[in-house]
Amino acid sequence: MKQPLVPVVPMSHTAHIRSHRKPRRTATSTIAVRAGVAGGVLSTLAVAGASSAASAAEPVTQTLELPTLTADLAAQVAQSADATQQAAANYQLQAERDAAAAEAAKQAKADLAEAKKKAEARKKAAEEARQAAAERAARDAERPSLTATASVSAPSSGSVGTVLAFLQAQVGDAYVMGATGPNAWDCSSLVQAAFKQVGVDLPRVSQDQSMVGTDIPLSQIQAGDILYWGGKGSAYHVGVYIGNGQYLDAANPSKGVVIQDLSGYPASGAVRVL
Q1: 0.70 cut: is pTM over it?
Q2: Tens digit of each residue's pLDDT (9 = 90 or more) over 56-72
Q3: What pLDDT shows up at residue 154?
Q4: Which of 44, 213, 217, 230 could cross-link 236 (Cys pair, CB 3.0–4.6 Å)?
Q5: What is the mean predicted confidence (pLDDT) over 190-215?
Q6: CATH number belonging to the domain at 136-272, selected among 3.30.420.10, 3.20.20.70, 3.30.450.40, 3.90.1720.10
């Protein structure tokens, strides 16, 4: 029996060359690949979770290795320590200097105040000495005029001259209430002491002194008459007329024993005991 003839198809000239095209993936193969990937991911997560759980259950101690202290590093550490110590010493020295400067400034201020105080005291003392010298010079200038007045006004008997000479010697003495000499007087003790030089014993106080002797009008007074201020028998001040419109008295604490013009302080009355 004859076999039927199969027609022969001519082969392409490139049929023996393998195709460069990638084989197509079927739906079934894609699903398999995705399933494999998902399984791998899940396995990785499971391993990671187990590792985390193990780490949480068993703490891990890490050991840090310190670097070896080399010679250079030791030198740097030593230099840093020296620098720190030097800085501290410098700060301490500066603090001591600041404290010393503050103390010196305080002492200088105190010394300046003390020097100023002493200078003011010296200035005051110099001014007081100047005033005292001026007052002494004024008293010395007044004494010659008193001598001339006394020599002119004194009677020939010399009793009034003796009284005026005593009074002249007391010019410049202090006024002290209740004092009776020899360097301090009040008004009545000076008059009493002056007349005692010629044997006239006068009362101690002004009121009584205004009552002794003979009353003399002020227009007729002479050197040696006793002047009084206030009422007769109630006088509060006395002095002695020395002539030429002047009198001598222990005036007050600020003036002491002085010579004054009668016109500046007119008397109330006068008595004569010599």
Answers
A1: no
A2: 445 555 555 555 556 67
A3: 38
A4: 230
A5: 97
A6: 3.90.1720.10
